[in-house]
Specification:
- The strands form 2 sheets. A 7-stranded parallel sheet has the order 3-2-1-4-5-6-9, with helices on both faces. A two-stranded parallel ribbon has the order 7-8.
- The chain is an alpha/beta fold.
- The model has no long low-confidence stretch (mean pLDDT 98).
- It is built from 9 helices and 9 strands.
- The longest helix has 23 residues.
- It has one domain: Rossmann fold, CATH 3.40.50.
- It binds NADP nicotinamide-adenine-dinucleotide phosphate.
- This is Glucose 1-dehydrogenase.
- It comes from Jannaschia seohaensis.
- It holds the Pfam family adh_short_C2.
- GO terms for molecular function: oxidoreductase activity.
Amino acid sequence: MTRKTLLITGASSGIGAATARLAAPDYDLALHYNGNRAGAEAVASDARSAGARVSLHRADLADPASIAPMFDEIDAAHPALHGLVNNAGVVDVAAPVAEFTPERVARMVAINLTAPMLVAAQSARRLGPGAAIVNVSSAAARFGSPGQYADYAATKGGLEVFSKGLAQELAPKGIRVTAIRPGIIETEIHAKGGLPDRAARLGPTVPMGRAGTAEEVARAILWLLSDSASYVTDTVLDVSGGR
Ligand code: NAP
């Protein structure tokens, strides 16, 4: 049987990297990264060892013009595309809304909302029946992240609404679209937002008493992509330990 090809954005660390490593025995992989080439190459090496054919694609998703060329590369590297994990995303430093600047909000919207919509648009031109898209939202879309990341939460809320529209649009074509809401997950994203101990500090406040791991989110993503979820579309799955 022909192996399916999966595109994962932000596959150089955290949830995207864990998803790529867990997917490798079953999927060929188009792995996107931006600044962390070493991380992407380490993931690619592990995935190749697990049997996957792997291509690497660098794109700064803050720039919408980077997206079409990335898909040209993917087309050259793989015969077809069967799935997308729209995962790349950023937080900014924690700040109240009164301190937001035009630059901060524009960057947040570009990477966390404009880019996944345009990546989904390119994917929708290529995916066929049996394919699936998983959009990586956040529990922040439920909480609003007051005093810290209201901009981030707003982009994730927007991504969930987009996910709903896309799911309805593509269902007649046999393409499933879902979103996932990780809670507090141990990845590098917290340090990038200036709070390296965030997952350790907030873990005990979660009903399950701990932060989650990138692998726990990856397993849920892979289930949503799989034929085991063949009647699941237009839904959002919380992977947040009850938070
Ligand atoms: P992470 O380890 O920081 O990974 C983020 C990924 O996004 C990296 O591969 C990074 O690529 C990529 N990225 C960042 N800026 C980019 C840009 N301008 N252009 C292209 N790619 C860019 O974070 P993570 O925790 O795994 O986050 C993955 C997703 O989960 C995000 O959408 C995040 O919002 C969501 N999430 C995370 C948590 C959590 O607690 N960790 C909770 C809820 C939702 P490079 O490093 O190569 O630049």
